[in-house]
UniProtKB/TrEMBL annotation:
The gene is ffh. GO terms for molecular function: 7S RNA binding; GTP binding; GTPase activity. GO terms for biological process: SRP-dependent cotranslational protein targeting to membrane. SMART domains: AAA, SRP54, SRP54_N. It comes from Oryzisolibacter propanilivorax. GO terms for cellular component: signal recognition particle. This is Signal recognition particle protein.
């Protein structure tokens, strides 16, 4: 719904040459709503919107861009910049073993992430990795780390609940040194909420092992609460990075913005499944799109307005709204517009990830060839046939097939597909060009 609103606003701002107080208000309100809906903390939202406004006001609108597009561009860039630019991998620049300390609330995903990181460091950086658990409050936690460490193909250093976390970590460090490990990952006890005793404990642990990385692990589903947690951990520890977990959930991931803003530490990784390989290097730009709830719609908007005849698209939308007369000419128009936008594959790349994941199962080369053949078939029809496909009888189908150099079955298939599309259009009644194209792609 948000995307539609934004798209509408982008259109409304067409034809205005610069961004002004007046034309930017509605857009900023939508952006604010989008951020709040994504669970970005209120003070962070306020700050952010003010920054965007500052940057946007008075800005000349470049070339063929419209103020709305320019603003969406500014918002997206600022979001991505706030969450960090470029890729921030794990820093291992230390006398080996490089020690990595995991911090965060209970259930945030520290233990899981420890194993995921171990696997990442083994596979991508060819490191010899040791893990150890300082979670002495729950015996099961130590076992859990042992299990997932095995899955990761790393080695695990034993600990027991009667030991002090600091002693455990120092023993592991000694072992790692003597056995030439490159990295020691130190998992820590969970905190259900910010707890002074436990905070002091992890501070002592930090002072003893002097980690090169102190990673704050935070659950993306935590939303607004992430701010308080982040603040407490930042005050207790010199955080060097953030891991945002459970991004495979349906949260829009606004916590990323809040946590980054509060801690100032770069978001290095994203957890995207419970499984051991469910860790991705954090991509700020992609995440900006997710927060705004519009995939890479920014790029799409630009491509659409560059490649698509807006008037034709609007005429089409009007037709659909009136519920009648979606004919093969319109169908052809859609096919051609898709081509103008750089073909199916580039189009798919720009869709929100849920959709492009589905699209990933489609053979794109084949789909593109398919589009060309369909065009050929429609072009072999007369104007009347395109308007009234129901008139096309068997003999004409043969003619059309011959004209397009395809089999009659293919003509039948196209007509069938067209009928389905027409049916869908009636149901949708003006859901917009975007929607139609997504349906066509998927
Ligand atoms: P800890 O208390 O901080 O050590 O958290 P755990 O590593 O034990 O994880 C808590 C729960 O979250 C477990 O059920 C994990 O499987 C799950 N979990 C951790 N990371 C992710 C993730 O990226 N995605 C999903 N879906 N679940 C995760
Ligand atoms: Mg744990």
């Amino acid at each position: 719904a948000l995307t539609e609103k934004l798209t509408r606003l982008v259109k409304e701002m067409r034809g205005q040459a610069r961004i002004t107080e007046a034309n930017v208000q509605d857009m900023l309100r939508e952006v604010r709503m989008a951020l709040l809906e994504a669970d970005v903390a209120l003070p962070v939202v306020r700050d952010f919107v003010a920054r965007v406004k500052d940057k946007a006001l008075g800005q000349e609108v470049m070339g063929s861009l419209k103020p709305g597009q320019t603003l969406v561009g500014i918002v997206n860039k600022e979001l991505a910049a706030t969450m960090g630019e470029g890729v921030a991998d794990i820093n291992l620049a230390a006398q080996p073993p490089a020690v990595i300390l995991m911090a965060g609330l209970q259930g945030a995903g520290k233990t899981t992430t420890t194993a995921k990181l171990a696997k990442h460091l083994i596979e991508k950086r060819k490191k010899k990795v040791l893990t150890v658990s300082g979670d002495v409050y729950r015996p099961a936690a130590i076992e859990q780390l042992k299990t997932v460490t095995k899955q990761a193909g790393a080695e695990w250093f034993p600990s027991t609940p009667d030991q002090k976390p600091r002693d455990i970590a120092l023993a592991a460090l000694d072992h790692a040194r003597r056995h030439y490990f490159d990295v020691l990952l130190v998992d820590t006890a969970g905190r259900l909420a910010v707890d002074e005793v436990l905070m002091q404990e992890i501070r002592d642990l930090h002072a003893a092992i002097k980690p090169v990385e102190t990673l704050f692990v935070v659950d993306a589903m935590q939303g607004q609460d992430a701010v308080n947690t982040a603040r407490a951990f930042k005050e207790a520890l010199p955080l060097t990075g953030i891991v945002l977990t459970k991004l495979d959930g349906d949260s829009r991931g606004g916590a990323a913005l809040s946590v980054r803003q509060i801690t100032g530490a770069p978001i290095k990784f994203a957890g995207v499944s419970e499984k051991i390989d469910g860790l991705e290097v954090f991509d700020a730009e992609r995440h900006a799109g997710r927060i705004l709830g519009m995939g890479d719609i920014v790029a799409l908007v630009e491509q659409v307005s560059a490649g698509v005849d807006m008037e034709a698209a609007q005429k089409l939308a009007a037709k659909v709204k009136s519920g009648d007369g979606f004919d093969l000419n319109d169908f052809l128009g859609q096919l051609q517009q898709m081509k103008q936008m750089g073909g199916l594959s580039s189009f798919m790349d720009k869709l929100p990830s849920e959709l492009s994941a589905k699209a990933g199962q489609v053979d794109l080369d084949r789909a593109e060839r398919d589009v060309r053949r369909k065009e050929g078939i429609i072009c072999s029809m007369t104007a009347l046939e395109r308007r009234k496909p129901e008139l096309i009888k068997a003999t004409r189908k043969k003619r059309i097939a011959a004209g397009a150099g395809v089999q009659v079955q293919e003509v039948n298939r196209l007509l069938k597909e067209f009928e389905q599309m027409q049916e869908m259009m009636k149901k949708m009644k003006g859901g917009g060009l975007m929607k139609m194209m997504k349906k066509m792609g998927g």
